[in-house]
Q: What sequence folds into this?
């Protein structure tokens, strides 16, 4: 039999209502922090995990902004990234002199963002900040801190709301903890 869309999700860690409430708060905070910027904010969505977060967050940022997309491959085993990063899809626009906000789904070991930061910072943006929906600080292997964090979570593998296991489960509308029977 075909499995259900939420097959193997053990429990709901963050509900749709809690996601929505926190994203409104993050949007308000970001709106306030960038309100005096002269140029439109450049939101860089890291594909694919951040697309749901990005699409909800950007509607809560009440400022002129542009969206761009960056896709990197990080070779891993499905549970974590190796930190070896290759660019699969480049940004469309130059970021020199712009205010850039990277939108990430989760900071885990910190290796992916560490590489992305070094790739983007040599392009000399006016500012470069990170917003991450989730943060698992207990898993950190390199020093990495988000400027805006939605939720700090324990060391559990989570799926849904953009986050995948082997490319599935991104369409689950909440953040769930993955069970061992997947
Ligand atoms: P890092 O380089 O270890 O910080 O890994 C970041 C990337 O690993 C995220 O953008 C996710 O794609 C993936 N990742 C880390 N933890 C999880 C998780 O609990 N669920 C799903 N993906 C995860
Ligand atoms: Mg992933």
A:
């Amino acid at each position: 039999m075909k499995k259900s869309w939420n097959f193997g999700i053990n429990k709901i860690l963050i509900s749709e209502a809690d996601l929505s409430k926190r994203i409104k708060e993050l949007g308000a905070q970001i709106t306030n922090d960038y309100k005096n910027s002269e140029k439109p904010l450049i939101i860089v969505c890291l594909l694919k995990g951040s697309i749901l977060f990005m699409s909800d967050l950007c509607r809560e940022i009440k400022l002129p902004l542009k969206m761009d997309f960056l896709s990197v491959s990080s070779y891993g085993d499905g549970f974590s990234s190796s930190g070896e990063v290759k660019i699969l899809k480049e940004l469309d626009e130059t970021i020199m002199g712009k205010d850039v906000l990277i939108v990430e789904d989760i900071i885990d070991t910190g290796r992916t963002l560490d590489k992305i930061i070094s790739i983007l910072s040599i392009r000399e943006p006016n500012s470069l900040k990170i917003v991450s929906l989730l943060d698992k600080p207990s898993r950190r292997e390199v020093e990495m801190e988000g400027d805006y964090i939605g939720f700090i979570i324990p060391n559990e593998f989570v799926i849904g709301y953009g986050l995948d296991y082997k490319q599935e489960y991104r369409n689950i509308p909440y953040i769930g903890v993955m069970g061992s029977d997947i």
